[in-house]
Amino acid sequence: MRELFPDYYYPTEEEFKTAWEKATFVLDTSVLLDLYRYPEELREQLINIFEKIADRLWIPYQVALEFQRRRMTTISDQKLTFNKVENIIQKGIDEIQKIQKGINKQLNDFQLEKRHSTISVNEFLKKMAESIQLIEQDSQEFLSELKQKKDKQLSVTTNPDPIRNKIDELIRNKIGNPPSDQETIDKIYDECRHRIEHSIPPGLIDYNEKQGDDETFTYQDIKYNRKYGDIVIWLNIIEKVKEKGYVIFITSEKKDDWWWSFKQSSEPPQKMGLRRELLEEIKVKTNDGFFWAYQTERFMKYADEYLNVDVEQKLIDQIYDISSVGQNLSDNLSYEDIDIQVITSEDLSNTIKCDFLQVFSQSNQQQYDAYAEISFWEINGWRVNGVRVDPSTYKSLTHPALGTWNIISWQENEPYGLYKGEIRANNPVCMRCFLVKKSK
């Protein structure tokens, strides 16, 4: 039956071995962006594997464009996570101290020494104070280590970017051609629409997730549609299989329109392999060409076997753990979670000295009439209705919960074209975010 239903069967061991010897390895956008998320040891190991197959690497133009557009947000997300962890720990310490003060006050107010001859809390309070002091010491040591790591963390203003430089080196002259004109990409999008209408994977999830005001963008006078990104990449892969015969796709995506999931009883669904429809389409359209895909952790596992690369199991486990939590930690951080403290000095100064960095993603910008892009005391300018404006044209911005903020001074920072300056609150506040909600 294998001859009649080849897409229902895994390739044989011999077929896998031949593929690893001959295949063109296509990298997904998620794999490139993950290089910013991984610890240094893991990142270097993955790059070493890519160097082993450097002459057989290739990425579609769509992947390269997505990488450039999302790179800064990915870097910013990593920085934001440092602040999130710092805030959680500091809040925890504050809560412990608050509880300690509350216990001390209530017991002192109760005046036990005058009320009861056999109840003594002095020893308990002493031990509690010692325990809390140890917690505070450990917390401060951790926060100090965290700050050192954050200071070393890549910033959007880091120039040159060593990670992007390495990616550029790996894929130089190995990128698909861009669409020659608008008509070319529009014809591709016609095919994308046909596939969506007939529920042909992949790209169905991407299409539904990226609907909205920001689904289109223009680059070099060509208008692109983000919701067709996965389909465009898939169509490029089909053409590459036609050209080369063997293609292995590496991705960290876990979307169900790429992978077949099987749910057994009460256990969570398990990814069993590529969707049958993808393998069938490859067989039909490429004259029995070979296509397979690996999520990054499995790619590293089999690289150890087929490329004779010594890969430590702990690094494979790290990728699995990171991908299980989610590719973008900021997806689970609401604006309320950002919790940027304006009151920073002992005298409760209500002035922020600003540098520059972007934190809010393009998709979130549409929710607000005006905002400053803020992260870790850093701002890169103002936007009104999603459009970048010169800050000097806005003397103040009012938020119903945060009050009015006056723009004291701004200057443009070269060579990045970003702004830095100073904003001041009319009254000291604890600022969680700096936004003006759209009226309903």
General description of the model:
The chain is of the alpha+beta class. 47% of the residues lie in helices and 19% in strands. It has a four-stranded parallel β-sheet, sandwiched between helices. Strands 9-15-14-13 form a four-stranded antiparallel β-sheet, with no helix packed on it. A four-stranded antiparallel β-sheet has the order 12-11-10-16, with helices on one face. Helix 4 (61-110) runs antiparallel to helix 6 (122-152). The protein starts with 12 loop residues before the first helix and ends with a strand. InterPro entries: PIN-like_dom_sf, PIN_8. It holds the Pfam family PIN_8. It comes from Desmonostoc muscorum LEGE 12446. This is PIN like domain-containing protein.
Summary of the model, kept short:
The protein has helices at residues 13-22, 29-37, 40-52, 61-110, 112-115, 122-152, 162-171, 182-197, 204-209, 229-244, 276-285, 296-306, 313-325, 335-338, 362-365; strands at 24-27, 57-58, 216-219, 222-225, 246-251, 259-262, 270-274, 290-295, 351-354, 368-375, 378-384, 387-389, 396-399, 403-413, 418-425, 435-437.
